[in-house]
## 1
Amino acid sequence: MYYHLDLLTEYGFIHVVQERRVAAMIERTFRARARRFRVDRRILAAASSESEVNAAQAALLEHTADDLRSRPDAKPPLGDTDVLVTRSFLRLTPELARELRAALVALVDEYSDDSDEAANYEMTLALFPAPEEGL
């Protein structure tokens, strides 16, 4: 396991965000360096059931919730407006759903800034057909 973690670190896929001594060991906490994680249902569906694919996508949402829970208590840079959490139920035709999906992807790309002045923000999007009883 350590060999693989070292390789992932060496090639820039993950990095150490925290180290602490626990007894005689050093415990390291890693974070992925990727700017975006997208679960491609077509790739996973070849070897996984629909419920397993849904679970993989839901894990991204759960990790976002964990990250939000672990935020430090320091005052956010934008004041009380820096965290936006919203849940919406929309009625869309399949065509409008495709357009919305494309627009959301384009919007994220448009606002992405790799400059040294840019701060790190986290965002998770989920757009999926909801059961009718959920509306």
Note: Helices lie at 2-10, 41-45, 50-69, 94-111.
## 2
Amino acid sequence: MDADTYSIDITVTDSYGEAVTLTNETFTINQSADTGKIYVYDIGQGTTDYNNDLGIQSVGSGTPPSVTSYSGYGFVEKIEDGNLGDSSFTYSWGSTYTAYLLESGSNGSTLAEVLDNMDSIPRTNSNRFVILAPSGSDLGGVPRTMTDAYGGSTVDQYVLEAATDGAALGSGLGTTEASNIHKLTLGSAHLGYTDWIMIGPQNTIAGSSTILLDVRPSSGSAP
């Protein structure tokens, strides 16, 4: 049944056959929050050019900005064409590359909580990785813009944090990363959502065996 308040008549009969009817009794069904699912992908390659690595042909308007992919080529095109959620998939981009699902999850009411509950995400190289989150779900804390510094006041602006090989977020020289954010529109809905938000570090991050991820409001402070 859908979330709503419903009315019913209830007849109760005791062991002696006496009956009483309760008329127009109401009960409420609450719809649980639908936060969708978060995916973290190793895209299978990594150079100094973010848009080129992801297979982004052009960037449009909007907040976050939408992207146009290359027809038949690149990581983004495969995500748009139905491979989101796959444990791995290959794509053509000059050579053949394989993207791997590093982690997925839905345990949390905000994007930061879901990433935190992923804990240390296994990672074995310096390939680019991206975070994909549904747009329009009940998940809170989904960025609309990204920056690489704290102390701002822009609503829905976030900072990406990444720590490798067991380091704590915010430790050492800091784990704040310059990052990019785009909106992808799938050819058909995945888990009920057609629009997805993609976030990834602007620069490649050195090879590591694990990585911790977080997104924090730019109005706050580093971990």
Note: The longest helix spans residues 75-83.
